[in-house]
Inverse folding.
């Protein structure tokens, strides 16, 4: 099925090259194994993100305006995004520390700019598939690097051993968050395409590699989030598309058996679950509950405008409950953290955004071709995963993971009526790898 569009290949000259180059350069810089860049957490990493995004957006805007097209794509998310931006502006104006709020606001604008860049890029099916390949290849590379790092360091007594896989991220929970979004994306592609036996075997082998890396992050929230994303995909696939092939099911069985064997045979993995309610450290559920209570008290003290974007760590010192001896940079709950910084009006805006996103995504899955539907379903599964993870962690405050979340949202948000299948014949049974 070929979907037509109002845009032509000449409407945005060289925009595909610009945005594709940006994607490759961005991810290469962001995941370069250096503490200042891994995850983009530190100031250097954030600066690189903002420079790359704003440079790409300038080229994007120039291409758009040169052909007299609207700068921002029309989607059902324009109004909720506008409301969110207005809320962030107001919260920044009333922030306890305006310079810090301004820094956070610029990072927020980088995410918004990135969303619209990818929204235009992903209208083309070739770019759609290429982007998914880039994300999956990065996830595979990180998984391989993390597993090698994990085993080599632990086998050599002369080296400093690590007990949790983190790859180039500064923290294993951040790596788990990246994989929790990537694994459902990959699964969505596998479940909605038909492959030869050899290709399917290689795909499931890749999936096992990524799942093994996720297991050895020892991130309980990552396991739960990945399970939620995968479950959403399977339930939606049965309920909406109803075309799971026997090959896929047969391919999934050995994966489940292998992972179950790995899990049961690993005492460390079992013990990791048993420590969830232990109260002897601040990083357990007990410590998180204390942080959540202090954050709720902070929200009650600043309900309308919050303390200002980026001001959480400074403002929390006044509300930090007894029992937490270390300074808290994050609330260990993205929802509470964001609300504390921007006020309670964020709650209806987030509900509005998610409603529009999933309503539009489910409509696309039902009416789109297999390729577009599979990628959209996988992206929605990745979004579900990180939304679940964000209940008890702060992955959306890690720029690398926040950007991936933005990309997944753009994948879902691309209107079906504007999707162009260029130089690709999508036929029933055609191999996904052959359609690039």
């Amino acid at each position: 099925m070929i979907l037509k569009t109002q845009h032509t290949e000449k409407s945005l000259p060289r925009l595909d090259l610009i945005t594709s180059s940006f994607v490759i350069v961005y991810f290469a810089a962001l995941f370069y194994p250096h503490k200042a860049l891994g995850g983009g957490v530190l100031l250097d990493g954030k600066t690189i993100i903002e420079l790359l995004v704003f440079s790409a957006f300038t080229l994007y805007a120039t291409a758009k305006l040169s052909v007299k097209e609207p700068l921002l794509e029309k989607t059902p998310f324009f109004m909720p995004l506008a409301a969110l931006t207005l809320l962030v502006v107001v919260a920044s104006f009333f922030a306890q520390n305006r310079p810090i709020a301004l820094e956070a606001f610029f990072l927020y604008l980088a995410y918004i700019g990135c969303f619209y860049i990818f929204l235009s890029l992903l209208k083309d099916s070739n770019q759609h598939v290429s982007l998914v390949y880039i994300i999956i290849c990065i996830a595979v590379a990180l998984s391989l690097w993390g597993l090698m790092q994990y085993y080599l360091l632990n086998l050599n007594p002369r080296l400093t051993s690590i007990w949790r896989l983190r790859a180039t991220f500064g923290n294993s929970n951040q790596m788990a968050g990246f994989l929790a979004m990537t694994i459902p994306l990959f699964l969505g592609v596998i479940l909605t395409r038909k492959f030869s036996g050899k290709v399917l075997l290689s795909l499931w082998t890749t999936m096992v590699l990524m799942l093994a890396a996720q297991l050895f992050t020892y991130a309980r929230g990552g396991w739960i989030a990945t399970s939620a994303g995968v479950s959403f995909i399977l339930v939606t696939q049965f309920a909406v598309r109803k075309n799971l092939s026997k090959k896929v099911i047969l391919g999934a069985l050995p994966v489940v058996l292998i992972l179950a064997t790995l899990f049961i045979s690993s005492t460390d993995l079992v013990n990791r679950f048993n420590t969830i309610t232990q109260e002897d450290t601040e990083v357990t559920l007990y410590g998180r509950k204390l942080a959540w209570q202090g954050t709720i008290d902070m929200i009650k003290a600043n309900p309308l405008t919050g303390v200002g974007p980026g001001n959480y760590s400074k403002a929390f010192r006044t509300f930090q409950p007894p029992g937490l001896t270390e300074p808290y940079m994050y609330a260990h709950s993205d929802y509470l953290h964001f609300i504390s910084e921007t006020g309670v009006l964020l709650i209806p805006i987030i509900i509005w955004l998610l409603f529009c996103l999933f309503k539009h995504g489910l409509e696309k899955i039902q009416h789109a071709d297999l390729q577009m539907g599979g990628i959209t379903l996988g992206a929605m599964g990745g979004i579900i995963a990180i939304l679940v993870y964000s209940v008890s962690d702060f992955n959306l405050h890690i720029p690398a993971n926040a950007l991936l979340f933005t990309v997944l949202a753009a994948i879902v948000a691309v209107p079906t009526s504007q999707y162009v299948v260029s130089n690709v014949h999508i036929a029933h049974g055609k191999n996904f790898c052959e359609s690039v």
User: Anything to note?
Assistant: The chain has one domain: 15-277+334-435.
